[in-house]
Design brief:
The protein has a 17-stranded antiparallel β-sheet that branches. The chain contains 4 helices and 17 strands. A hairpin with a 3-residue loop joins strand 6 and strand 7. Helix content is about 20%, strand content about 45%. About 15% of the residues are buried. It is of the alpha+beta class.
């Protein structure tokens, strides 16, 4: 009696490879999960170090708490790296980062401050540039010392408010649009005083700035005296300012020393050139 012939059983090719592929799939998923966990757990202190490095020490996030995605810190502003002092704003700066826009290559975040900012501001950053919503911020006028002359001599004190339209920043040049900042800012200085003058306050002032790439056009006017300042200039790598300063008749004697520090007297006014 002949034995039945045994035939080998062959699995389809796709099924035969499946057991070999599964370990690699699980390994990739595990690595991806670890990477997402590490990024999600990045502490706010890492954000603080990054901001300080990118701003050359001008913006300091002290006492940072939370993570990259949701955190807060005390905001301090200084004249830059090497500065021995910094102005600390009362209250806390908060930020939150949306995860899903990152998959499309956009970092979308919302920034607010419980003391200095009346409303949150949304910021979007892409490889080509960034955009920020219109907003406002209240700051001490003492921060102007970091700008340089003449503020580092005057050492101003008072209230400063910044209002800006929607701002755009380009990281690289494009046809007809060089890299830089685009938008309009208004700076209001109220009840300003100076460490080199006993007369307080010196006045209130308004500056309009139009940024168009690497340079910004500046217009300065006086809201109230007794020290009247007017002028125009340009901000940027080749910044310059030309204007005039004069004192109200009843304050000429008290402001004589201050005016001599600001510039040369010509035609009954002090010429300002910086």
């Amino acid at each position: 009696m002949a034995l039945p012939r045994l035939e080998s059983l062959r699995l389809p090719r796709s099924r035969a490879l499946t057991p070999q592929r599964r370990p690699w799939r699980w390994l990739l998923l595990a690595l991806l999960a670890v990477l997402v966990t590490l990024v999600a757990a990045l502490p706010a202190a890492w954000v603080a170090r990054t901001v300080a490095a990118r701003t050359e020490g001008r913006v300091v996030l002290a006492d940072a708490a939370g993570t990259l995605w949701l955190g807060s810190a005390t905001l301090a502003l200084s004249a830059g790296a090497g500065s021995q002092t910094a102005t600390v704003l009362p209250g806390r700066l908060q930020w939150s980062v949306s995860f899903w826009p990152l998959l499309a290559g956009t970092l979308r975040m919302t920034v607010s401050h419980d003391e200095a900012m009346p409303a949150p501001v949304a910021i979007a950053i892409t490889p080509a540039g960034w955009q920020a919503q219109a907003g406002a911020m209240r700051l001490p006028a003492a921060l102007l010392e970091g700008v340089g002359a003449p503020f580092n001599t005057l050492r101003p004190d008072g209230a400063m408010r910044l209002d800006w339209t929607a701002l755009q920043g380009a990281f690289r040049d494009a046809p007809g649009r060089p890299a830089g900042l685009y938008g309009h800012l208004t700076v209001r200085l109220d009840q300003v005083s100076s460490a080199v003058s006993r007369l307080r306050p010196l006045g209130s002032y308004r500056a309009e700035i139009d940024w168009n790439g690497r340079a910004g056009a500046l217009r300065l006017s006086t809201v109230a005296g007794p020290l009247f300042l007017e002028g125009r200039g340009q901000l940027g790598a080749r910044g310059r300012f030309e204007g005039t300063a004069r004192a109200a008749p009843e304050a000429e004697t008290q402001l004589a020393a201050l005016l001599s520090l600001l510039g040369r007297r010509e035609d009954n006014v002090t010429r300002l050139r910086f």
